[in-house]
């Protein structure tokens, strides 16, 4: 009730504060609508003009005609389908969040939507646009400017696509996009879960390969950010083992192996840094422990070579001091 009251007050505010409205607003179907959406011709004429406008890629006119159909003839069979065509027009007018609403309304109104898959193709494109930085309208109102960040809405739509068409390639793409967004936001656990969902749902496919590589990148970024956290490394090793088992001849294994090597270098460097600290604070016996630990755990790393050199220096120092 509170939200409804706020919306009505906002509508009155817009009407009162805007002196250059192109036409008066009217109350219709429980909301204020521009007078231009009130039908001036028959349903058939507006419908025909809308379809012709779509064919001509006249998106403004198509939007006008189909919005008129849905508002002026709400009980007609065409009114439901009009939301789908309105969504197409709005998408091509770069009005992405409002287009998404129209597509959702089409799905809600149609019991057996003719354009079910097409709707989710558009929704996926909308989410990708929002992910790439497109803005949404303030408060979700068409009359407000496009000034609001829309990353959260993009995540919601990716999840909607992945849930609605669980075994479709659209879902696979949506899961990839969602995981990459979560990774960018440093929400590592959720990103890894999403990549693993992609692997489980699309095994033995290119999508699964992308999932394994995504998991590897997530663990790499996690250890880069949380250098003292030992958990990502064994989990990354397990991910590589599963990748090798599922795709033993896959060329991308080299990239995943390289990512694991980077993680090992970072982990080894963390031990080396501790050894250096103890050297600076004149506690060489403690340094030796950490240098040897780095060599034992990560013998093939470049850092292991540095640790070997430091051990030789410390042994020389100990011999000279004795």
Overview of the molecule:
By secondary structure, the chain is mainly alpha-helical. Among the domains are: 1-34, no CATH class; 39-165, Serine Threonine Protein Phosphatase 5, Tetratricopeptide repeat. The protein has 14 helices and 4 strands. The protein has helices at residues 2-17, 43-55, 59-72, 77-92, 96-109, 116-131, 151-164, 169-184, 188-201, 206-225, 232-246, 253-280, 284-297, 302-321; strands at residues 25-28, 31-34, 136-137, 146-148. The strands form 2 sheets. Strands 1-2 form a two-stranded antiparallel sheet. Strands 3-4 form a two-stranded antiparallel sheet. A hairpin with an 8-residue loop joins strand 3 and strand 4 (146-148). Helix 9 packs antiparallel against helix 10 (206-225), helix 10 (206-225) runs antiparallel to helix 11 (232-246) and helix 11 (232-246) packs antiparallel against helix 12. The longest helix has 28 residues, at 253-280. Residues 5-10 and 12-22 have low confidence and may be disordered.
The CATH topology of the domain at 39-165 comes to: Serine Threonine Protein Phosphatase 5, Tetratricopeptide repeat
The CATH class of the domain at 39-165, by name, is Mainly Alpha
Strand content: under 5%
CATH superfamily of the domain at 39-165: Tetratricopeptide repeat domain
Largest sheet: 2 strands, antiparallel
Structural class: mainly alpha
> What is the name of the CATH architecture of the domain at 39-165?
Alpha Horseshoe
pLDDT average, as an integer?
A: 89
What is the radius of gyration computed over CA atoms, rounded to a whole number of angstroms? 29 Å
Instruction: Assign a percent range to the helix content.
Output: over 70%
Q: Which consecutive residue ranges, at least 5 long each, have pLDDT under 50?
A: 5-10, 12-22
